[in-house]
Design brief:
The structure holds 2 protein chains of 2 kinds. By secondary structure, chain A is an alpha/beta fold. Helix content of chain A is 28%, strand content 28%. Chain B is globular. Classes of the chains: A alpha/beta, B alpha/beta.
């Protein structure tokens, strides 16, 4: 385990100033990205696979294990949505197992969330220490081309960073980060670690080394890490649903926009990578993009643009 | 102007398509595939992909000649069977289709061709039961878009690994999979009657039409935009008319809706539901 005990706080670090867990800090985070296949609509079978990956991750002293979008359910759910929904609570027959495991390592789980008024959301839950620290509801539901999410799911309406024992984190799901504003807002809300999860169907085969969809996702996640001088981790699923194919290729980029780890394409894998959280400080000392971001100018111009009528 | 070579990364195509075959067969608890091998390129490619996905011992090739089928077709199919080292059966359809032909002395070549294609479908699906296998489709994107197939005949299958590849791309991938040269080099033909060739019957070459289809379908060009970049106006309108006219072949028959929940409209599940 990588523990680092700080006797004096580092001044000027977002991560430090927002920490509420005292002075003991891990400055290195052992991350694992699980790119799994799922059984469409079979939550029990998918839970068993989660528990198997959690076991593997624990053997490698993992601090945080990230699963892809809709990892408990499969992706093209259509009329299965209502029957696979779960609430991330201790008395839920699925989540009780995952919450128990979260005493040993933090988990990001993809699932269908149902609110008290029976709206269904594509969701990611961050579990830690037996508790649900945060649930993100997918805010952009692609309903074009091969996608039909808006027909079956409710739109999330919050973009919030949240505190974890590693610092402040933001989560987004697939189409959320095809738009520039959600990562930007998370950055301004204090997220130093962005966790993206996807069920990205492969498309656009030409003579290039990678599919167009894979190249696009890698390009933008790398760009966010660079522009926001933050860690960006991405877990994408693998396998097939009818003719759709999910390409995997989990990635971790550091605050310099450098690739720290990349998982294999088109096969199940767990990719281990270490995040040196001190890199945030070193990068931002060199490149103070966060310090210099002119948020009130953004606000002023947004107000002008949106009030044009 | 977009790149019209339609060139693909064949390693990646192989990986995705073999993974698809493996996934679709194993998720229903099976291990075997059956392919109707005509001696032509499309079925050769589907068969080679199935072998790569499942192993030679798990693929059955079925040759289904009619008495007027060309000798080359049988020989070319055998070339591939030998190269891949797979099991094969030859089931001649002449005695199955002739009684129907004899009932209609004035039967047209088109009707005979359709009957033969559907008879082969019957044989293949029957063999799939014997071999505990799924039938692998052999229709490429060009012929699906142009409707150049027999409805419920050669277009019928349990899954189709090559249906998103244009004929030009089928050729490219076939070279990468070392399909025997005589199969790649010969003029494409349904071999339903002597001297029939696809390009003769369609009135244009695959190379020409694939470029146009790629612009119209993949790149979402309007017909007018396709003309503006140099395609002949009559050619463009003939092709767009064919695409539209043959939409029925690409769909399940519509069900008349009278209930609140109707299969096809609001009873929506993937085939892979639960697997």
């Amino acid at each position: 385990m990588y523990f680092f005990i700080l006797t004096t706080p580092i001044k000027g670090m977002t991560l430090e100033s927002r920490n509420s867990h005292g002075k003991i800090r891990r400055m290195k985070l052992n991350l694992a990205l699980a790119q799994i296949n799922t059984k469409l609509g079979d939550v029990d079978a998918n839970l068993a696979k989660h528990l198997d990956y959690i076991k593997q991750a624990k053997e490698r002293k993992t601090d945080l294990l990230v699963f892809p979008e809709l990892s408990l359910t499969g992706y093209v759910l259509q009329d299965l949505v209502a029957s696979v929904a779960h609430k991330p609570t201790e008395d839920d027959p699925i989540f009780k197992h995952l919450l128990k495991e979260s005493h040993d390592l933090d988990l990001v789980i993809g699932f269908v969330d149902e609110d008290s008024r029976h709206r269904f959301y594509i969701a990611s839950a961050y579990l830690s220490g037996g508790k649900v620290l945060h649930v993100h509801h997918k805010i952009y539901l692609p309903t074009y081309g091969l996608f039909d999410e808006g027909r079956f799911f409710a739109w999330g309406d919050k973009i919030r960073a949240f505190d974890t024992r590693f610092g402040r984190v933001g989560m987004l799901i697939c189409e959320d980060f095809w738009h520039a504003s959600p990562p930007y807002l998370l950055w301004l809300d204090g997220a130093d670690i962005m966790i993206f999860s996807s069920a990205s169907p492969g498309r656009g085969l030409n003579d290039k080394e990678k599919l167009e969809s894979a190249r696009w996702v890698e390009r933008v996640t790398k760009a966010y890490a660079s522009m926001f001088t933050s860690f960006v981790a991405h877990a994408n699923r693998v396998g097939y649903e009818d003719g759709l194919h999910f390409w995997g290729g989990a990635t971790l980029f550091d605050p310099n926009g450098e690739e720290i780890a990349i998982g294999p394409y088109n096969e199940e894998a767990i990719t281990f990578a270490q995040m040196d959280l001190n890199q945030l400080r070193r990068t931002r000392a060199r490149l103070p993009l966060l310090r210099d971001e002119r948020t009130s100018l953004v606000q002023k111009e947004m107000e002008r643009i949106l009030s044009r009528g | 102007m977009v790149d019209l070579t339609l060139s693909i990364n064949t390693d990646l195509a192989r990986e995705i398509l073999t993974g698809f075959i493996r996934s679709e067969i194993t998720r229903v608890g099976l291990t075997h595939a059956v392919v109707g091998l005509s001696g032509g390129l499309d079925s050769a490619l589907s068969c080679a992909l199935a072998v790569e996905a499942l192993g030679a011992e798990n693929v059955l090739a079925v040759r289904m000649p009619y008495k007027a089928s060309s000798r080359d077709s049988l020989d070319h199919a055998q070339l591939l069977i030998d190269q891949l080292g797979i099991q094969s059966k030859t089931i001649e359809i002449t005695d199955m289709v002739e009684p129907l032909f004899k009932l209609h002395p004035d039967i047209s070549k088109m009707r005979m061709g359709n009957i033969m294609a559907r008879e082969r479908m019957i044989v293949l699906f029957d063999q799939s039961e014997v071999f505990k296998a799924l039938v692998i489709g052999t229709s490429n994107k060009t012929e699906i878009l142009l409707g150049y197939s027999t409805h419920y005949g050669d277009s019928a299958s349990a899954m189709n690994p090559i249906g998103d590849l244009y004929k030009t791309q089928v050729r490219q991938l076939s070279r990468a999979l070392n399909i025997p040269a005589p199969i790649i080099d010969k003029p494409p033909s349904a071999d339903l009657w002597e001297g029939q060739t696809d390009e003769g019957e369609l009135g244009f070459t695959y190379e020409q039409v694939d470029k146009l289809l790629y612009l119209l379908v993949d790149q979402r060009y309007s017909p007018q935009e396709a003309v503006e970049v140099g395609f002949d106006e009559k050619f463009v309108s003939a092709v767009t008319a064919r695409i539209r006219r043959n939409q029925f072949k690409r769909m399940q028959p519509p069900i008349a809706k009278i209930s609140n929940r109707t299969i096809g409209y609001d009873f929506l599940y993937l085939r892979d539901w639960g697997t």
